Structures are given as structure tokens and as C-alpha cells.
Amino acid sequence: MSATLTLPDPSVPPESPRVRAVTDFAEISRRIQDAGLMRRRYAYYWAKLVGMVVVWAALITAFVLVGDSWWQLATAVVAAVVMTQTAFLGHDAAHRQMFVSGKWNEWTSLVVANLFVGLSYGWWQHKHTRHHGNPNKEDVDPDIDLPVLAFTATQAASRRNPFTRWFAAHQGYFFFPLLLLEGIDLHYQGLKRVFGREPIARRGVEILFLGTRLVGYVVLVFAVLSPVKAVVFIALHLALFGLYMGGSFAPNHKGMPIVPKDLKIDFLRRQVLMSRNVTGGRFVDVALGGLNYQIEHHLFPSMPRISLRRAQPIIAAFCAEKDVKYTQTTLFTSYGIVIRYLNEVGLGARDNFTCPLVQSYR
């Protein structure tokens, strides 16, 4: 019996890196779907939403009962944690993790973000969608285009006067103190968007919800506390909220490669190589609202938060098969990486465009 040698068809071009990349993502998508990780988890999210309302009601009741006391500073700390955890729920709804219906997710996010947290859903959605589409891409990702911090050598070089150059060289050390102002900035950016000229869906609803939340919050605080205590309470509450929010999002991409604006990378590698997971078990899962599974979240944004933990070993193993670098570290190690990265960029000592994909995709 003779063997037949089959030669490749010369009319069919060899598989290109881009074709392989599309095939890779289709393959991991099938594995995730087959594992049932994209199905909606209604019981989980309804429990979260009902629990959110109960916790807020208990917190407001406690605030009123404690009255005009400096013990309310402890209430401010609890309120910052509750508000951040509530913001995580708004983030889940904005990514359509909760319901099949887009309108249910949108309205849930509007209520949670605008009415409970005081942040604009429309502003956040516009900004966050651009980030998800091109994480760490120069001139595209709004998260690395900030007026205060330099994330690229080009941004650092644009600092002209002695103070801004000195600040850029030490910016890593200022990163976490600056997060104390993040709570105020998040509120300001949302209000700027809803009252600005840029298009935004449901502007009237957003203004109504934001107005109710922000005015109601200030009235309640000043009704219960004397003016000095009220100002201190609000300052502490917003400072800790900003620190918690910023500290939850910072480990995800800061210190990972920056993508040149003219470089195109396939979806799977664009999301995995520019993202970092944070390890630490169930406590970190809860504390960071699932953002510690950043790679899984970026690959499958609509995957329910509770399913990310099960998806992690599947995606990590797949990346190992395809020789795609999968980065994960502990929370405090990631903070150290962020600080060093920002200082090195500010000093011009880091080539933040170093990436093995550049040559293969040019």
C-alpha cells in the first residue's frame, strides 16, 4: 500500500498573523461559551442590587442617629467604601453583565451611577468605551491622556517649565496623594459632560438624577452636622472614595506597554498584553469589584463578574498555548510597579513603546 504525499495548494496563501489572531479569539470564545461563563447570573445581581439599597438605607439611618458628632468621620469612611462598591455595580451594568436586555442594563446603570453614586453614566460610558477599545494606546486611550501625569516619553518631554519637569520626574510618588482628589474630579467631569454641548443620551434624566443625588447629599449632611463637621465629612468622604476608586483601577494597565498610535494589534493580544491581573483570593475579588480579573474582563466585558474567577484559568492556559504573555501579580507589587513606571517615564529613562508585537504587525 503506497502512501500519498499531499502538497500545500500554492493558490492558498499561508496563514497570516492576523488570520491566526482572529482564529485564536474565536477559539477562546468557544471555550468560554462552552463553559457557560457568558450566561446571565440574575440571582447574583438581584441580590447585589437589593443589598445595595438595604446598605444605603442602613447607612443613612445610622448617619441621622449618630447626629452632630465627630464620630461621623467613621461614617464617612464607611460611606466611601459603600459608594465605591456601588460604583462597581454601575460598572457591571454599563458593560451589560446583569441582564440580556440592553435597556435594563442602561437604566440600572443610570440609577446606580447617577442616583446613588453621583457620577454621570453617559460621561463614564463614553470615556470607558474608548479605553476598552484601545487600552494603553497613545492618543486614543483617555486613561493615559491626563493633564497632570505623563504616561509616555512624549508627554514628559512636553513639560517645559522647571516645576512641571521636576513634578514629572517624581510623579510616581504623587500618584496616590493625587487620587485623594479623584472623587471631586469624577463628579466634576460628569457635570461638565451633562451640562456641556457634547451629545449625550438621556441628558434630562441624567441631570434630574445627578441633581437629586448631589443636592440631596449636601442638604442631608448640613442638616445633620454643624458647618465645620459637614465640610470635613464631605472632604473625607470624597477623598477616600477617590483613593479607593483610583486604587482599584490603577493596577489594571499602568506600567504595562504603551501602544504607538499607528500600530494595529489584534483584539486578543491588544487586551491581554496591555492588561494586568491582581491575585489575592476572594478578599481581593470583593475589594476590587472583579477588576482584578482585568484580562478576562477586557476579553469578555459582558461576562458577569461572578464568572471571571472561573474564566481565569481557562484564559491563562490558552495564552500559554499561544505564547501570549499573561501578566498577574499581587496588589501591593502592582502599586510599586505603577510608582516606578511613572517616575521612570517622567525622567525619560523608560522606553514605554518597547513591545515584541511592533515588528510583527508593522
From TrEMBL:
UniProt-listed InterPro entries: FA_desaturase_dom, Fatty_acid_desaturase
UniProt keyword terms in alphabetical order: Membrane, Transmembrane, Transmembrane helix
A GO term, aspect molecular function: oxidoreductase activity, acting on paired donors, with oxidation of a pair of donors resulting in the reduction of molecular oxygen to two molecules of water
Residue span(s) of domain Fatty acid desaturase: 69-329
Protein name in UniProt: Fatty acid desaturase
Listed transmembrane segments: 43-64, 70-92, 205-225
GO biological process: lipid biosynthetic process
GO CC aspect terms: membrane
